[in-house]
Amino acid sequence: MFERLWKKSTNITKLKLYSENSPWQNDAVLLHVSNGLGHLRMGYGIAKNNNQKSFMLLKDIPLVKWHCQGEYDCPTCEKLISAGYGLNSVNEEVIREIRSCMNQPYGTIYLAVDKLVPILKLLPSGYYVVADLPLYPSDGNGQFFWNQSNQPVLNKGTCSIYYNQMCSTGVPTFILPSQLPENYDAATMKCYQEMYRAGESLRGLAYYMGDYLCTLLDGHHKAVAASLEGREFRCLTILPVHGISSLKDEKDFKMSIGGVWIDSKDLPKQLNKEFKKACEETNKLKTDEVEKYLAMETDCWDQFKWPKELLNLGKCYPDAFTMACIEFAGDLSDERIIRLLRYEEADSGDKLEFILKALIGLKDIRTTELAMKIAKREGLRSLWTEAFEYLATIQSEAIEDFFIDFLVNDEKLRPKLTKIADEYLANGSIINVGIK
């Protein structure tokens, strides 16, 4: 159906099949698009106020908007996210083709790429990976993914996360919507719930924008259904090349695809030098284009009222900072925690901090026990504030006894801890202390 929309012959060449042991830890296919249309892409440019902007674009329609707070894209600075103009504004034939591709049963990643050819032809020429990835139906801030706004909001998933001399560059983890909220249909979502309950293998379609965030191109109702059913939401995720690193002779190079650097020796063919130049030209936007995309807004993003049940779904998932802490912490097993509490590893305190933050973000049932153990150890005083803050959000007799014992022996050397314990006992219930 798409063939008449372009003049040049677009070819999709599958170059390498990866198993679940791939760099993306899931089945994937490396492919090359030649003479691509360039309709489905990220675009970057400078607005009139000299701030850099980025857009997830499909046929000149912004699906998601990124806002840097300056003309330089600081890699460790949070950016702001705002809603796009809606996939509904794209040519209806394109939308039908996307849905037709995604409504077919999923078999293997290799066969799935064949079914995606009409969509892959919309990409700019270049190298891509299509990976079968689990993605959280959350926006990276711990919020329901479909609940976005025209007003730019800071998002933790828009940057590499630097904390305590550790840095996480991010991998595809969270999703942002491309469909307008007014297209939500409870009956459609319930049909997918029944399909999940019946054991069917469902997939969404996503495009990796960078850091921790993807745009969901198809599968919004599947994502909601999966979340309500407590099922894993998997997407055929398009991973573009985000960076190229090469030596002066350009014989050896690395390509950053989906948050992972792939060495040239692990690629089936040498880098096409013209690809990097073509990619840069395709992605660059003029200021008047940037202003046009910024002005494209749809009121329903701010007017639609989501059911509370759906809004609460975002709280079921970790945010981007938690994902970074999971990476920093490494092994989260009980055995590892015991070793760290015995100081059997170097920098045990720092590692326990990452584990505590990770468990809090994951809402792990082991968090309270670990926080209590930390709060009782003199050698972990640097972690007491966070442990106290977490414990103050849990109502239990054991925690009440702990705070009473603390106040009885309190020498008033740590007024913040004294205040947390006092307020917990005074309120007799869970208090909000703003854990970070």
Description:
With 436 residues, the chain is α+β, with helices and mostly antiparallel strands. Helices cover 34% and strands 22% of the residues. It is built from 16 helices and 16 strands. The protein has helices spanning 92-102, 109-115, 117-120, 186-197, 220-229, 273-283, 287-295, 300-303, 308-311, 320-329, 334-341, 348-362, 367-375, 384-391, 397-408, 415-427; strands spanning 11-18, 28-34, 40-46, 52-58, 61-67, 79-83, 126-134, 153-155, 161-163, 166-168, 174-177, 204-210, 213-218, 234-246, 253-257, 260-263. The strands form three sheets. Strands 1, 2, 7, 11, 12, 13, 14, 15 and 16 form a nine-stranded mixed β-sheet that branches. The protein is globular and about 80 Å long.
What kind of sheet is the major sheet?
A: 9 strands, mixed
Cα gyration radius (Å): 24 Å
Question: What coarse outline follows from CA principal-axis ratios?
Answer: globular
The percent of residues in helical segments reads 25-40%
Uncertain ranges? 1-6, 430-436
| Mean model confidence by pLDDT | 89
Counting DSSP H or I runs of 4 or more residues, the number of helices is 16
| Estimated structural class | alpha+beta
Termini separation comes to 50 Å
Number of strands: 16
Beta percentage is: 15-25%
Quaternary state, please? single chain
